Write the structure tokens for this entry.
Amino acid sequence: MTERHIPETDVEKVSYLRAGHSLRSWLLTTDHKRIAILYLYAVTFFFFIGGAAAALVRIELLTPGGDFLTNEGYNRTFTLHGVIMVWFFLIPSIPNTFGNFLIPLMIGARDLAFPRLNLLSWYIYLLGGTLTLYVLVAGGVDTGWTFYTPLSSMFANGNVVAATVAIFIAGFSSILTGLNFIVTIHTLRAPGMTWGRLPLFVWSHYATSLILVLATPILAITLALIAAERLFGIGIFDPSLGGDPLLYQHLFWFYSHPAVYIMVLPALGVVSELVAAAARKPVFGYWFVAFSSIAIAIIGFLVWGHHMFVSGQSMYASAVFSFLSLAVAVPSGIKVYNWTATLYKGHISLDPPFLFAMSFIGLFVFGGLTGLILAMLAIDVHVHDTYFVVAHFHYIMVGGTVSAFFGALHFWWPKITGREYIMVWGRLTAIFIFLGFNLTFFPQYLLGYLGMPRRYHIYDPSFQVLHVMSSLGASLLGVAYVLPFTYLFYSLRYGKPSPPNPWGVTGLEWTTPSPPPKQNFDQIPVVTTGPYDYPVEMEDRR
Amino acid sequence: MTQGSPVHEPYTEASQQHEANMLGMFIFLGTEIMLFGGLFAAIMVYRIEHREQLIEASKRLYLWIGTANTVILLTSSLLVALAVQASRAGSRRVGATLLVASACMGVGFLGLKGIEYAKEWQEGLLPLTGVRHAFSGPVQELFMGLYLAATGLHAVHLTIGIALMVGLSWRVGRGSLRLPQKALTVELCGLYWHLVDIIWIFLFPALYLVR
């Protein structure tokens, strides 16, 4: 390398990163910023485990025969992919890393309300994660991530109990994080930081936290009942006792549909920040965007039945669930329209965070519109349990959320580490992720519409072309996901030290040095202006 | 209120810290209600689906033990409420005694519950594997499963509550928890105790009184 290693700057010497060098100072830290870094390592680790499982699935699907994995092996692989990606990557991804790091900084606080609880939540997460790794080593679980009864309770022969206990444990990590965020946002806002001056990132995390604390306990009790049925024969869902397997589906989706919004609401918050920063304009219709997060959280609790249109539930219930599911599109649409209006006549620069935000909006719109198709009763009967559904939720949860995750990483990286990365690589990554993602998942819409069922690995040879396209796209996507690790780690040593506000944007987090000191603010700031108070004076920028 | 209690990071004022602790506890209690909510939903659904058989099954439970336990828990909640008042007034001895007394009532509840389980076990009513079943229909077994899951989960919560109360009274009695400055700690643990009580107040009619 010809570049010189840039030594530690004075700002870095007094930053949170240098407040204690020992491993102990990291593992016993109560600093929200350090816990965010711990979470970043942990979720990244699980992202790659879940990604490896996805790679196995895609390799298997290259050919119409089952010639790479056995039937049982395939079931276990996609279950593992789902369990790890949902509970150990997507749900904690943005809230526990960027939410943890940024919420106190954005509202002008020194830490979250309960710093020790915050650390505890990380250890609980690790405990759940370790148990999941045990499940992996012990041979996996074959029920799908949904654990439907009576398959999971009576017939499955994988490690169902260990897997449910792992998710049960990880749920408490979610609950503690949600609780901590709500209390923090209520009680620790700096003087003058009224609810109307909160950055939209904070609003969306508030909505997310409401779901975390209200929905997660339902999942906990539901999975506990499955474990009880397997361990002690307490047959709550056992049809031979008059038990109702559909009750399980109701309870499961009462959590798991809102959980989809746990995964996407933080991403919506990130994109609101990225769009305002890119346009250097106030977000159009602040209150609409803020309350659309709350509306999504509330309506999201009332739509779970759309997963059960073909389960035999009451037709009238299905009609209501269908209507309410379509209604979620209203607040979602408000966000997209308002972002677009924010960009209108903005001074846009094509920085990596902006490209990630655009990638998010594109994929989110596509995933959202196909969500409307799925919410319609008649069409859902046709495409239920096909690749159309798989493509739809991957567009939202992977295309959307992971784009926003990388967008957040590229936007706040200089703040978190104090170093700037090479922008051109960030732009390339954003483009690769967008292209790779579409190549992977767009063919799946077509596959699903043509009748390819999900969770099958032996399929009609006429589907092979589309499956091969999808697998090729997945390889590109895999490369694009690994790419940031090279130039981001490179920046830690060779990157230019970042000024406090490298993007020239508003927000209290940018008034602190990069990286911030342990106590965040020497003096708790007094807020006198709203969020997105553009234009920012040039002398504030550098 | 909490005047004189030390303000910890990240708080700047005592009132802020007090509000945060109360809010945190109430949210936690909300999650507990949702946790039991899943069980209540299941009980309700099966009561609608299998009304007659559920009533039949409910008649096999020991109503008098359930009633006695309800009285015990309600009384213990009164004692906890008085303990909170005492700790606010700074009377250590009274506070510690009341807390121990409520913990003892909790142990009494668990004792009675144990007797009840033992009787049901002998009658072959508990749906554990390897036990001779004495059900007149399959739904009865389902109901007893729900009964065991719900009361068992409640008993776990009560055990945690008892441990909290014993630890708290120890600290109050020794003076390591300074009163009235730290009365909030007693109040928060008291809230948890009340919740465990309230959950029972709903479990009792849902399981015992449906007949």
About this structure: Chain A has one domain: 24-541. The interface with chain B takes residues 104, 109-115, 175, 179-180, 182-184, 186-188, 213-218, 220-222, 224-225, 228, 232-236, 238, 240-244, 247, 250-251, 524 of chain A (CB under 8 Å).
